[in-house]
Amino acid sequence: MMNPAEFENIAQAEDSFWWYRGMHEITLRLLQRMLPAPPERMLEAGCGTGAFARELTKQFRCVIDLADLAEEGLARARGKGLRRLLRADVRALPLAAEQYDCVLSLDVLVHLERGMERAAFAEMARVLRPGGMVIIRVAALDVLRSRHSVFIHERRRFTKAELIRIATEHGLSPIRCTYLNCLLAPVALFRFRIWEPLLGKSAESGVKPISGWLNTALRCVLRLEAYWVCRGGNLPLGQTLLLFARKQGPDRRASA
Questions:
Q1: What digits encode the pLDDT tens for the residues 39-69?
Q2: How many whole angstroms separate alpha carbon 52 and alpha carbon 78?
Q3: Are the CB atoms for 192 and 144 separated by under 8 Å?
Q4: d(CA 124, CA 104)
Q5: Which domain CATH number covers 90?
Q6: pLDDT tens column, 64-110
Q7: Phi/psi at 103 (nearest 5 deg)?
Q8: CA–CA separation, 127 vs 109, rounded Å?
Q9: Total structural domains in the chain?
């Protein structure tokens, strides 16, 4: 589970911090393009503070259930007016099978021990309707692990091939998988593999206030990536991975 101390850092920063705003924009825009039909029911498995769920409710007028294991996140989600909340482990969802058109799990699987992500995939596939869509976002590439990774209790990172393989093993057909936060990867590599080891400082959160001009500049970098990926392009590497996969089987709504 994520370090409970990070929830307050996220809550203070996510409405303006470049990474959150950029990733929310990319994920929402791709959702709009890739969902085959307006969803009737959605699940966010690992909702954190509920900030992205709040944006989902504005975009999609449907039932959206939120699950998280951390009470620190659920309490903040309640404070945002979200009510369909469930304290649950993504590896053992206390939910009926095949009831959601769309299941999202954003930046959750990285906190599970290696191998346990398969239990999470199995559960998300179980509660997803045939023909439904699962959206997974995870941290990518072990070489980009940082002091922030240690602080938030990130247990692992993924490669594109690995994420696609695990999805396929659980009856999910990948239809789009791309790295994100690509243009800043060389800077991140220098910082995490050279600069941070030289400083020798202890683990700390990377979610903290930065100057306005820098926040704007970094947000512009992600907007360039959003322009590319939302027009069908994929990025060859990056600090983040985003997967869209469909559960095998006919969409019952389409045949109704």
A1: 999 999 999 999 999 999 988 889 999 999 9
A2: 13
A3: yes
A4: 9
A5: 3.40.50.150
A6: 999 999 999 999 999 999 999 999 999 999 999 999 999 999 999 99
A7: -125, 130
A8: 17
A9: 1
**By the 8 A CB rule, do 44 and 53 touch?**
yes
Domain that holds residue 65: 5-246
Q: How many other C-beta atoms are found inside a 10 Å radius of the C-beta of residue 173?
A: 13
The whole-model pTM stands at: 0.94
Question: What is the per-residue DSSP string for 109-121?
Answer: GGGSPTTTHHHHH
- Return the closest-CA partner of residue 209 out of 27, 17, 38, 10: 17
Q: Which helix (H) or strand (E) holds 173?
A: strand 172-180
The CA distance from 129 to 253, in Å, is 10
Q: Is residue 251 part of a domain?
A: no
Domain-embedded: residue 253: no
Residue 11 has, within 13 A of its CA and on its CB side, a CA count of 18
Can you tell me which residue has the tokens 């938030």? 152
What is the tens place of the pLDDT at every residue in 159-205?
999 999 999 999 999 999 999 999 999 999 999 999 999 988 889 99
Q: For residue 177, what are its two tokens?
A: 């998988």
